[in-house]
Write a structure and sequence with these properties.
The chain has 197 residues and is of the alpha+beta class. It has helices spanning 11-30, 45-53, 143-160, 163-188; strands at 57-72, 80-95, 100-104, 109-113, 118-124, 130-133, 193-196. Strands 1, 2, 5 and 6 form a four-stranded antiparallel β-sheet that branches. The chain has a three-stranded mixed β-sheet with strand order 3-4-7, with helices on one face. A hairpin with a 7-residue loop joins strand 1 and strand 2. Helix 2 (45-53) packs across helix 4. The termini are far apart.
Length: 197
């Protein structure tokens, strides 16, 4: 049987078989049953919350203040030239860009750490200055500029000693952060709680 007849495949048949095999291979690659659903996009809640509350300095409290300051004679500091009754506004709050959000996956909590509350600005109303001159010579062209400086110095000193003002501003800052962050936490991380420190 060594003389058996060997069949030769025509080049057309070989080409058809090669094309069929390639088409079958491409079809097998293209059709892959996708049993897994695409993964849900992950949201970093701390970054989202930071972006929401980051509005830099936001005064959380505005206080009206009325004060009286005495301006002494520059040459004789024991003598009072005049008294000034003034009105001012004090803005207190926090720098919201410094609020930090920390996620605790074990406790299922988002903690917002607030920065220290501070006096952001004081504004003396130059239209509400009332003078009581003890020395009539002190009533000159420079009196308003000197008076404003004295009032601004006085209001700064009063603010630093007023703890109730800063405590009210802190309470308001907590309420602002809670109002901005809580709805997001409830929607994105339903089983998490928001803690504000």
């Amino acid at each position: 049987m060594e003389n058996a007849v060997k069949k030769k495949l025509s080049p057309k048949v070989v080409l058809l078989i090669a094309i069929a095999l390639i088409a079958l291979f491409v079809a097998a690659l293209a059709y892959q049953p996708n049993e897994k659903e695409p993964p849900e996009p992950k949201v970093d809640i701390t970054v989202t919350l930071k972006n929401i509350v980051e509005t830099s300095d936001l005064s959380t409290s505005v206080f009206k203040y009325e004060g009286i300051v005495e301006v002494p004679d520059p040459k004789k500091p024991k003598n009072i030239d005049y008294y000034i009754c003034y009105s001012a506004e004090v803005y207190a709050g926090i720098d919201f860009s410094e609020v930090q959000f920390i996620e605790d996956k074990e406790k299922k909590a988002i903690t917002a750490k607030l920065p220290e509350v501070k006096i952001l600005d004081t504004v003396v109303d130059p239209n509400k200055l009332d003078f009581l001159f003890m020395d009539k010579k002190a009533n000159n062209v420079t009196v308003t500029a000197t008076a404003l400086t004295a009032c601004e110095t006085d209001i700064q000193q009063e603010c630093t000693s007023e703890s109730a003002l800063l405590e009210t501003a802190r309470t308001n800052a907590i309420n602002v952060v809670r109002a901005l962050a809580e709805p997001v936490v409830e929607q994105v991380c339903e089983d998490y709680t928001l803690v504000i420190e």
